[in-house]
Amino acid sequence: MAIHLKEHENSTTQALTEVALALSMAFFSLLILTLISMGVPAKSKLNQQLDKEKTIDVIQDNKAKSDKAGSLKYVIYYHGDFYDAALKRIKPNKFNSQERLILAIESTLSISEVIAIKTQINNSNLSITTLNNEWLSRLEKK
User: Fold this and answer.
1) Do residue 85 and residue 137 come from a single domain?
2) Which of 22, 55, 128, 130 is the most buried (most CB within 10 A)?
3) What is the model's pTM?
4) Is 78 in the same domain as 27?
5) Which one, of 80, 71, 73, lies nearest residue 139 by Cα?
6) Residue 96: inside a domain, yes or no?
């Protein structure tokens, strides 16, 4: 008994049709993307000049704000003592509460120790980081 398939029932023809349709949609999508990207106008010289002036204003504003806020200071906590960036011993309460401080601590300290150290400094603008190997070796030599 022989099976005769009509052309619309042949699955090979349907698969090739699906592949051709997918390829044509991909080509059409690429064509649309190309046309859209070619249609975007380049910035004029006037717009570029305005952008440069805005950038300069923003940079100057940021510098003015950072001057008002004070300079960034580093505090190092190592084996129960506080040090400045030059590794001189300092008192933790000598800083203004509005100064921007970065506190560098040993990575082996527990959370409760870090919280206790933070309350000793009493600064609202405090960031905390860990000491790297170079700082640790400098502090050990001290």
Assistant:
1) yes
2) 128
3) 0.48
4) no
5) 80
6) yes
Is it the case that residue 138 has pLDDT exceeding 90?
Answer: no
Nearest of 132, 96, 99, 126 to residue 117 by alpha carbon: 126
Amino acid making up residue 61: D
61 within some domain: no
Q: Into how many domains does the chain fold?
A: 2
pLDDT in tens, 53-79: 555 544 444 455 554 445 678 888 888
Q: Are residues 89 and 34 in the same domain?
A: no
What's the pLDDT score for residue 58? 46
Q: Is residue 65 part of a domain?
A: no
72-78 and 100-105: which strand pairing?
parallel
Helix/strand number for the chain, H first, E second: 4, 5
What phi-psi label fits residue 80: left (phi over 0), alpha (psi between -120 and 50 degrees) or beta? left
How far apart CA 127 and CA 90 sit, in angstroms, is 18
CA distance 129 to 106: 9
